[in-house]
Each structure stands twice: as structure tokens, then as C-alpha cells.
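C-alpha cells as discussed.
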């Protein structure tokens, strides 16, 4: 858990310029978490977002930290607890994504061209650092705490093990 989450989070955070995500298709689990690590998410109108980990008897550590920064706490908890997916329009309405467009890559590039390209790279880097200073500290601390909860407590349950085994066998888990 720690390697995957911390490595990806830190890799995106080390980029000293705004990172734009263009999402077409499904952004579920780790794909949704990776998109949330970016600064702006542009989605195709057919895109789907979600954290289905709960359906496997586990929770989504990075999403547990990142979703409340993107949307309200109750909306984040809905996705985290239910494991359901939401369409791009609902993701936009709830603040998970910032734009919905037929071609999200073209829309993200247009955003860059229209709003960022002419700006000072140094000023953008410092504005990004300033806007995220508290978030970076909190995310790092919360991820460390969730790693312990995930590895030490959750992964010792038979539900987590049964859920992963069912997933690998392409079966629906049955939790008792």
C-alpha cells in the first residue's frame, strides 16, 4: 500500500507545474486515485469514476484521503462506502472533476493554452506549492496512518482475503 500510494503521490507532487488529467472511460480504484492526484480533471461525458474496493472487502486508502479534498465529506463517503461508480456529469456536480467535454484531452490542452501557457512557470510552481502546503502535509500524515490501518488491521481479516480471492477468481465475494 505505502509504496504504491506514496510513490505515485510523491511523483505527481514533485512535478512543479499544474498537472492536468484527461479521463475517458473508467477511472475506478487506482485510476480514480491517480486522477485525483492531479490538479485539474477533465472528463469525457461518458467517463465513470468510483472506488469499488469496498465490494472486495477492503477500503481505498488514497481515495479516503484525497476524495474529501475534491468533494464534500458526505459525497466522498458515499463513494467510499458504497463502492458505486458515478458518471462524469455527477462527478462534475460534486466537484470531483472540473470540466466535462467530448474530447477531454483536447479540452485539457485548451485549458492549458488558454489559462496557463502564458503564465510564469516559476510563479505557477510557487502558487501551486502555496495552495497545497497544508494539503501535502495532511496527505502525507494521513497516508502513513492509513497504511497501518490497512496492512495491520484490514488485511488480517478474512473479508479482505476472501474479497481478493473472489476478485481473482472472477466471482462475487460473499461476506458473512
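Sequence:
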Amino acid at each position: 500500500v505505502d509504496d504504491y500510494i506514496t510513490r505515485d503521490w510523491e511523483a505527481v507532487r514533485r512535478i512543479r507545474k499544474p498537472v492536468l488529467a484527461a479521463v475517458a472511460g473508467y477511472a475506478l480504484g487506482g485510476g480514480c486515485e491517480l486522477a485525483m492526484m492531479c490538479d485539474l480533471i477533465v472528463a469525457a461525458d461518458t467517463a465513470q469514476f468510483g472506488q469499488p474496493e469496498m465490494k472486495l472487502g477492503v477500503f481505498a486508502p488514497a481515495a479516503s484521503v484525497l476524495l474529501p479534498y475534491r468533494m464534500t465529506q458526505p459525497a466522498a463517503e458515499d463513494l467510499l462506502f458504497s463502492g458505486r461508480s458515478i458518471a462524469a456529469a455527477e462527478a462534475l456536480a460534486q466537484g470531483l472533476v472540473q470540466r466535462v467535454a467530448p474530447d477531454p484531452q483536447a479540452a485539457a490542452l485548451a485549458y492549458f493554452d488558454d489559462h496557463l501557457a502564458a503564465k510564469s512557470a516559476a510563479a505557477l510552481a510557487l502558487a501551486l506549492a502555496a495552495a497545497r502546503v497544508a494539503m501535502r502535509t495532511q496527505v502525507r500524515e494521513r497516508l502513513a496512518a492509513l497504511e497501518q490501518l490497512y496492512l495491520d488491521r484490514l488485511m488480517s481479516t478474512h473479508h479482505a482475503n476472501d474479497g481478493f480471492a473472489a476478485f481473482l477468481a472472477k466471482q462475487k465475494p460473499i461476506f458473512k
